[in-house]
Specification:
This is Rieske domain-containing protein. This protein has 267 residues and is mainly α. It has a two-stranded antiparallel sheet. Helix content is 61%, strand content 4%. Bound molecules: fe (ii) ion (FE2) (2 copies).
Length: 267
Amino acid sequence: MAAQGLRFTTGTSPGLIKSVPARAGEDEAGEEAVTAPDHPGRPEHLEVVDPRHAKSTKSRIAMLHALANIEAWAIDVSWDIIARFAAKHPELPDAFFDDWVAVADDEARHHSQLVARLEELGSHFGALPVHEGLWETAETTADSLLARLAVMHMVHEAHGLDVTPKTIARFASQGDKTSAEMLQHIYEEEITHVAAGLRWFTWLCDRDGLDTLPLFYDLVRANFAGSLKPPFNTDGRAAAGMTEEWYLPLVEPKKPKKAAAATEAAA
Ligand SMILES: [Fe+2]
Ligand SMILES: [Fe+2]
């Protein structure tokens, strides 16, 4: 269609962008001759960002939002291990409670920092849907302190050590140095949380003469859906005192392709 027959206009209602035919005779009269706008109008409520940053900002906000959600649950989980197991285990020393109060303090700070960063990027906590996966683990392990330490702190939190360096690298590669530095600090504190889980798991096993590693494998298999998945952050886990014997035996061997296909066909 020839541009000559059209008037371009931007409506005042939100979302209204339209092209309408010119009234008969306008072109001939030259009263409203078409002039190409330097920049077509858009409704005022649209937030316009640089296309080079639009996708990365959205994905960074999604990542920060997911982490803020996990940290929020981590606060509850830290207090829960104290409140739920203190009465059941009167033998626990003060050092146990000191450790988990310190963890709760860290998690609250992590959550607050992530929420503040979301706001700096123009979003807010609650802008996206959240899940309650961590609390499901709290419920699954509500009757066993050993299971709680094993699954919550030595599987989930240890997995956090595996994935966080990659997340930090993504923020850094997208030029978000502020978030990358914040996540690096959070990562270093998370190492101490895995260390606390390991410390108290082994403390309880030593005290009761339990066979530590086989018990750990049994508890993870019974209370954690799925298997542990590499790649592992061997250095980060080692910094928490977690050597490979704590996780490599829990990796499910890859099924041969033929067997996997047969299983899928039978499902
Ligand atoms: Fe945290
Ligand atoms: Fe943590």
